[in-house]
Amino acid sequence: MNNCIRLHADDDVVIARQQLLSGATVEGLSVRGLVPPGHKIATRDIAQGAPVRRYNQIIGFASKAIAPGEHVHTHNLDMGPDKGDFARDHAIGADVKPAPTPAYAEFMGYQRADGRVATRNYIAILSSVNCSATVARAIADHFSKLSNPSALADFPQVDGVIALTHGTGCGMDTHGLGMQLLERTLTGYATHPNLAAALVVGLGCESNQINAWLSHSGLSEGSHLQTFNIQDSGGTRQTVAKGIALVQAMLPQVNQAQRVPCSVSHITVGLQCGGSDGYSGISANPALGAAVDLLVAHGGTAILSETPEIYGAEHLLTRRAVRREVGDKLIERIRWWEHYTAINGGEMNNNPSPGNKAGGLTTILEKSLGAVAKAGTSNLEAVYEYAEKVKAHGLVYMDTPGYDPVSATGQVAGGANLICFTTGRGSAYGCAPSPSLKLATNSALWARQADDIDINCGEIVDGSTSVQAMGEKIFQRMIECASGQPSKSELHGYGQNEFVPWQVGAVM
User: Same domain, yes or no, for 273 and 406?
Assistant: First the structure.
């Protein structure tokens, strides 16, 4: 097996499979200095200011002359004087391909009365505002398997009672974008198929008034959705008691749900990557993309997101847009983010984290080109704003931040009933009420954190399997997890603290 990986014949760099010492030979060249695993080595002379290619795409510009065999990283590669604002051929619709022949497969899901299908069966306690978070958690804690093991003993079909709390809901413009995003998010969760029932707990005087939210969202109270305020319920102790009693009354009906065979077309997967490294775009992300193509071929839906992490690679998606308005909307969201980061004193290249860079990624362009591989090769059917309800089938896009908890929260609000999360550095993450599968990009991470990772895609880097074979494995694991097999993050109890609605605008 070679000690490096070449992704395209026209690339200026190759990727180290393992740590390379000075003097090691790479494609007939002598390595100059120490190169960590997952990092890049130049294979030709690159002049200062010249573009540098990986995936046969520009990942940045040489900030100084680079000689063959040199380590290529933050010391000699950056976004260039235009900060990534170089021409990209968006060619909307140019790569659209015929829809695949429909395939059929099944998983064991919960069929809801309105025809939607769930992968889990929870009751949730949602807070309208940070002020009601403690009460919401106290209600859910009463039914926790850790604090009260017998509370759900008679209700085996109930996956749990979870508290989904957040740090906003007041000190904000009641008509602004921030409130609109919060209302959309709460609506998406309150009506999510994985929640058989929901309680929404408010304080009473907050900006996010429950009655206004119900009106704006077209929702009404009933057996599956009930709301109340602390100030109207006699304070903390009485509100907690009220919530516990309401959940106890809901449990018998929620427990009646039974898993039945359902079409895989009812699976909607949110695609996430966090703690990315130099292998993400080589192993886990393209393998997840292969699984997405299989899911789409079976009528399912995949949601790609994290707009700051497709920056510089958006042209690879617009070329697959099935209609011009789909491609135009994605470009418009890119322009919104350029403006948004600028007015907040930042830039799009602020995105790669220290961990990303330690793992071999240098610029947001490089990170994005690896990230879009999660989307496979399917046509792009629609573009949604944050937490909008996803109605299209196939590959779709949702505009979200790159911060994983915020991004996945929007995807679940949009209807994702499963999350697939690739990581190269090791991310501590889970998602409730939708289970989250974690995919390692390298075998070293798998060896360190096998208790946290569901699938080792590092086998691709090791040369023991192919991207397509791993994609088939991921697709089968999706079906198993959707059918009730717990993910590693579920076994560890992750999911409730990761509910983080996107907070936009002034805090007043």
Answer: yes
